[in-house]
Every structure is written in C-alpha cells, then in structure tokens.
C-alpha cells in the first residue's frame, strides 16, 4: 500500500521568540526610511503647491515657508518655488535648477530655489526677463540664502529668499534671516533622528511583541491538540489494519484482484503571497486617440487664450500683458512641437510599436507642458483683467465694437457678391457663408452684452462676467469671419491682376525655351506649357474662373520651363522672372494658410486633429519660407509649395469635419447647428460650433485644460 504523508519539522527551541524578533525587524524596516534616492534630473515639482520637499527638510516649519511664499506673491506677484533634494545628481546646481524650471514650464514671474541638503548646495533659477537684476539675485543669495544653508536652516533659506526678493523689489536692503539650525542631513542615513518617527515605531513594536506572544501561546496549544488527535487516529487506523489482515487470511478465494486500498486525500493550501501590481500599458489605439484628443483640447486652449489676450492688451496695454503673451508664446511652441510629431507619424508611421508609443507619449507630454504653463498664469490673468471689477468699462467697449462690426459684415457680403460675376463658384464657395455666420456670432454677442448689462444693473457681478466673456469670444469670431471674407475678396482681385503678369512671364519663358538649345526634354516641357497657357487664356476669356487655381497652373508650367532654362544657363531675365514668381508664391501661400487658420479658429467646436495637424505644418513651412534669404528662391518655392498644399488639405479636412458635425455625424442625432433655423437658434448653434461656449454652455477663458472653464466655478475675479 502506497502511503502519502507530509513531513512535519518540530519547532526549534525558542521558535516563537525568533519569529517575534523577525517580525519586529520587518516592522522597523517598513517604518524606517530607506536609503536616500538620487534626485530626478530634472525634477517634477509638486502639483499641489510651490514646495517640493523630497527629503523632509522642513518638518514642522512648512507652514512658515508657505506663509513667506504667499506674502511675496500677494505683494509683488512673484511666484517663488522651493524644492529640497538630497543632491543634484552630479550636475551643477544652476544646470539642475534651470532644467527643472524648463521642465515645469515656469514663467518670467516665477523663481525656483533648489537646495541639495547632503552637500549643503543651493541654486536659483530666474528668467532673464524676470525683473530681477543679477546683482539683486546675488545679494539675496549671499545675505539671505547662503548663511541659512550653511547652518542647516533649510526653512530659513526659503523664508530668507522670499523676504529678500520682496526687499529688493521695494528698493530696500536685504536683511539676513534669523537662523534656526535644523537637521544637518535630512533624509540622509538609515536611522531617523526625530521623536515623531521613533515614538510610533516603539509603540508599534510593543503592540507587535504582545500580539505575537499571545499568538505563540495559542499556537502551541493548538499544536498539542493536533498531536493528540493524530495519535488517536493512528491508533484507530492500526486496529483497523490488523482486523483487515485477519479477514483476508481467512478467505479461501485469493484469485486475482488487488487489495482494495483506501486512498488518502491530502488537502494542501498555500498562503497567499504578495503580488506585484503592474500597471498595464495603454493599448496603442487608445494612446493614439488620447494624443489626438490632447492636441485638439490644447489647441482650443491656446486659441482661446490668445483671443482673450488681445482683449486684455486693448484694455490694459501691451506692457501689462507681456508675461501672459510670453506664456501663450511658450504654449504655442510646445503645441507646434506636438503637431510636428503628429505630422511625422501621419507621414511615415513607425512600424515599431515602441517607437510609435514613445512619439505618442511625447505628444501628450508637450500638450501637458503647454496647458500647465497657461494654467499657472490664469489666476494672475484674472487679477490683472478684473473682469468683474471692470465690467462696466469692458462692457461699454464691447458694445461699441459690436455696433461698428455690423456695417463691416455688410461690406464683406457686398464684396463677395460683386465677384460672383467674374469668379467661378469654386473660388467663393468656401467663403460664401462667412457673412451669415458672422451675423450669427454677432447676434449671440449682442444677446450676451444685453444680459451682461441687465446683470450689472441687478448687481450680479458674476453673471455679468460670464455673459461678457461669452460676448467677447463671439465678437472675436464674428470679426475673424468678416475679415476672412474681405481678405478673400481682396486676394481674388489681386490674384487676377497677378495672373496677367504671370502669363506674360510664362510666355517669355516659353519663347526662351524655344529659342534655346533643342532637346527632347525641353521640347516636351515647352509643349506642356503651351497647352497650359492655351487653356488659361480660354478660361480668362470665358469670364468666370478661379484666379487662384488658374494662377497655380501657370506657375507650375513656368517652374518647369525655368528648371530647364537653368540647366542651359539662363540670363538675367530668367532671374527676374524667378524672383517675381517667388513673390507670387509667398502671397498665395500666405492667403491659403490664413484662410485655413480662420476657418479652424471659427469652427473649432467641430474640427478634429487631422485638420489642425495639417494647418500647423503649413504654418511651419510658411514661417520657414519667410525666414529664408531672398537669394534662396528655390528653397522658398519649395517651402511655400508645401505650405499652400498643406493649408488646402487642412481646409478640406476641416470642412469635412464641420459637415459631419452639422449632419449629426450620420448617427441619427439632431444637428447641433442648423443654418436654416431661426436667428436665436442659429446664434446658439454658431457659438457651439465655434467653441465660444463649452460644457455647461459657459464661455472658455484664458488658461489651460484645468482652468479654461473656471467661470463655471465662479472663480473669475
């Protein structure tokens, strides 16, 4: 008979005591701090405040530091961020502090004090346009920060810095702080030095030992009882086995058949162990969608912030709003980098999933940085504008702007109508509804201004601020739509004049090609150019045509002839024609990019990521073309060609998104904006289409993703 058994090892003498000691050591290991970690390079600052203390340097004096930082900010509008780390990871203090400030998007009115406690080092990072002179920063460092750091007064260093910066801004001498030495190496070493740590450890140890002794005594009693039960079962099993053998011996039939065996069933259990919680990677499709959503939301935040910044500059002047213009510029730069990565993914998708994941993560990182910078400035922007306190003056200015805009919309509509007799429908169709949409936005703005006026009369400053901000945003879009329509009318008129000059240049190039050295390629290009020019003359003689499309065909034919002429050594006339073609190309690209930008801005409630990505890339190419020297004609033509093509792609994608939005996406939902509805319904629908109002039908304002909807919380002030 096979026997299944489990080996039992008797407990060693003193086993409970040993286990108690091991448990106590384990508890202390969990409660005591581990070896100090090196500081990240750069470090992510604490999002919950302006103090990032990774080593516990401040202790009970954290409130004093916070009070000093608040005092500096409320008096001089300077944000002092303080971070304590063990060391600067082998980098110089200034490099580490500057890298941390850049990573966290600190602005010109933000100063970072970084302290490395292990080596008693410190560094200050301040922007060149922070308003502090180098001599002032050095005076504060030498008088208020260095003495405190040298004597391990970590809180005193931050308090001295805050008070010192306040002194230099008031024109007063910097005063040395009152030194209160603290721990020489907070966070350094394995054993803590504070009662606040030892007291809970000691209490926990006593409780743990008491519980372990009680559990050990009860466990010994349970083991004795189990041994007695096993002995009794063994005796019963032995008696049963003897009886069975006696019964088998008395049997006469012993043919075949194995002895029946009662199989013992051994039940085992495994105590659950510690499992490591691993955060699963976001699936690539979900990460791709998250990146696209971040791009759209960040683009909306940047556009809204830039629009309200214009109102603030008109109200307060450019000097007062310069810090916020810099914040918007920084956010635009981060957003441009994110769109550039998105365009690369669209052009050449990475087959390697890891590379694609990194690119998508970087897109989200750029968007986060842009939003964080705008969010950091939103509170100061509200204080500067004082939308509630200055509501009466802002309202009067907005009402005057609304009255002046109405006749300008009529002018734009008349200008487009005057071109219908000479321009094809394709040249005007994209702008035909701009005047009507401008009137819808103006109607929404007028209603908002009237509501703001009623709220002011009733003493409701919060309600007046909400209505006034919504009216401002709608006025901005009405002005943009009107300007876009007028610009297109002007461009079409100018393009028609430039087209005649372009045809003459192309004909001169064709004549030069025919008189030059004969070649098969030259003959082919000349024949193609002649066919194009023949078709262009026919279109121009027909009366109604699209000047921009026709000019594009002429320029392409002329470029082909110029390329062949350059191969055979053309003269000065060829250079002059090339320069004129470059000028026309820059004008054409600028017009297409502006048209796409205006359309996306005034329809951003519906426009998705792809259209915005193409627009950002078009703007990048146009900026590059403008920055090239005049003698780089070929490079300029290449850049403007890309800008023109990408802008037209962006416009087409945006119009497709808007069509889906107007038709409810084909899912049977009612259209959120019906151009044929009544004026009030169109006004509200247009505000939603343009992103003038967001969730809860409240207006968006200056700020990033976390603060642009803050009017919903009544935080405007």
From TrEMBL:
<feature type="signal peptide">
    <location>
        <begin position="1"/>
        <end position="39"/>
    </location>
</feature>
<dbReference type="InterPro" id="IPR007621">
    <property type="entry name" value="TPM_dom"/>
</dbReference>
<keyword id="KW-0732">Signal</keyword>
<protein>
    <submittedName>
        <fullName>Putative membrane protein YgcG</fullName>
    </submittedName>
</protein>
<keyword id="KW-0472">Membrane</keyword>
<feature type="transmembrane region" description="Helical">
    <location>
        <begin position="197"/>
        <end position="220"/>
    </location>
</feature>
<keyword id="KW-1133">Transmembrane helix</keyword>
<feature type="compositionally biased region" description="Basic and acidic residues">
    <location>
        <begin position="250"/>
        <end position="262"/>
    </location>
</feature>
<feature type="transmembrane region" description="Helical">
    <location>
        <begin position="683"/>
        <end position="702"/>
    </location>
</feature>
<feature type="domain" description="TPM">
    <location>
        <begin position="61"/>
        <end position="165"/>
    </location>
</feature>
<keyword id="KW-0812">Transmembrane</keyword>
<feature type="region of interest" description="Disordered">
    <location>
        <begin position="242"/>
        <end position="264"/>
    </location>
</feature>
<dbReference type="Pfam" id="PF04536">
    <property type="entry name" value="TPM_phosphatase"/>
</dbReference>
């Amino acid at each position: 008979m096979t026997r299944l058994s489990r080996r039992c090892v008797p407990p060693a003498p003193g086993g409970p005591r040993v286990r108690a000691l091991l448990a106590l050591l384990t508890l202390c290991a969990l409660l005591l701090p581990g070896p100090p970690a090196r500081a990240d390079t750069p470090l992510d600052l604490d999002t919950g405040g302006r103090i990032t203390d990774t080593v516990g340097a401040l202790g009970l004096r954290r409130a004093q530091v916070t009070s000093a930082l608040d005092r500096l900010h409320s008096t001089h509008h300077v944000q002092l961020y303080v971070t304590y780390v063990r060391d600067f990871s082998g980098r110089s203090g200034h490099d580490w502090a500057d890298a941390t400030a850049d990573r966290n998007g600190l602005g010109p009115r933000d100063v970072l004090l970084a302290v490395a406690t292990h080596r008693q080092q410190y560094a200050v990072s301040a922007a060149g346009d922070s308003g502090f002179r180098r001599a002032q920063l050095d005076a504060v460092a030498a008088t208020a920060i260095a003495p405190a750091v040298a004597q391990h007064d970590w809180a005193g260093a931050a308090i001295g810095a805050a008070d010192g910066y306040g002194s230099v801004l008031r024109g007063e001498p910097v005063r040395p702080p009152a030194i209160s030495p603290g721990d020489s190496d907070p966070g350094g070493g394995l054993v803590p030095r504070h009662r606040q740590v030892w007291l809970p450890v000691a209490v926990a140890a006593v409780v743990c030992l008491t519980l372990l002794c009680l559990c050990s005594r009860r466990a010994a009693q349970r083991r004795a009882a189990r041994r007695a039960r096993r002995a009794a079962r063994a005796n019963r099993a032995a008696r049963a086995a003897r009886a069975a053998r006696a019964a088998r011996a008395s049997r006469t039939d012993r043919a075949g058949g194995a002895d029946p065996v009662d199989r013992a069933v051994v039940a085992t259990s495994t105590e659950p162990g510690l499992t490591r919680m691993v955060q699963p990677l976001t699936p690539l499709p979900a990460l791709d969608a998250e990146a696209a959503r971040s791009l759209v939301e960040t683009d909306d935040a940047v556009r809204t912030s830039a629009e309200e910044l214009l109102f603030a500059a008109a109200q307060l002047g450019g000097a007062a709003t310069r810090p916020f213009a810099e914040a918007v510029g920084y956010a635009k730069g981060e957003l441009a980098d994110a769109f550039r990565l998105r365009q690369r993914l669209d052009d050449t998708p990475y087959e390697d999933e890891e590379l694609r994941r990194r690119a998508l993560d970087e897109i989200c990182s750029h968007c986060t940085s842009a939003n964080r910078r705008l969010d950091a400035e939103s509170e100061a922007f509200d204080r500067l504008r004082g939308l509630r306190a200055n509501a009466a003056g802002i309202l009067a200015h907005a009402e005057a702007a609304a009255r002046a805009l109405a006749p300008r919309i009529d002018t734009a509509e008349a200008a487009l109508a005057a071109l219908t007799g000479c321009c094809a429908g394709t040249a005007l169709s994209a702008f035909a509804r701009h005047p009507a949409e401008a009137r819808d936005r103006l109607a929404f703005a007028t209603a908002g201004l009237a509501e703001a006026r009623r709220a002011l009369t009733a003493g409701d400053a919060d309600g007046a601020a909400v209505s006034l901000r919504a009216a401002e945003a709608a006025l901005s879009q009405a002005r943009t739509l009107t300007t876009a329509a007028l610009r297109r009318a002007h461009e079409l008129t100018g393009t028609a004049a430039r087209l005649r000059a372009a045809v003459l240049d192309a004909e001169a190039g064709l004549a030069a090609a025919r008189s030059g050295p004969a070649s098969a390629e030259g003959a082919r290009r000349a024949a193609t150019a002649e066919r194009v020019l023949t078709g262009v003359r026919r279109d121009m003689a027909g009366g109604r045509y699209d000047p921009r499309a026709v000019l594009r065909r002429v320029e392409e034919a002329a470029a082909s002839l110029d390329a062949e002429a350059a191969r055979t050594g053309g003269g000065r006339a060829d250079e002059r024609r090339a320069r004129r073609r470059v000028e026309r190309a820059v004008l054409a690209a600028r017009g297409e990019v502006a048209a796409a930008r205006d359309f996306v801005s005034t329809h951003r409630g519906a426009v998705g990521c792809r259209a915005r990505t193409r627009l950002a890339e078009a703007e990048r190419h146009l900026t590059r073309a403008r920055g090239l020297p005049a003698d780089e004609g070929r490079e300029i033509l290449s850049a403007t060609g890309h800008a023109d093509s990408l802008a037209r792609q962006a416009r087409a994608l945006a119009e497709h998104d808007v069509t889906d939005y107007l038709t409810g996406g084909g899912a049977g939902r009612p259209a959120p904006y019906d151009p044929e509805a009544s004026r009030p319904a169109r006004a509200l629908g247009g505000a939603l289409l343009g992103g003038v109002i967001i969730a809860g039908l409240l207006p968006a304002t200056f700020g990033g993703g976390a603060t642009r909807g803050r009017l919903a919380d009544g935080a405007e002030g």
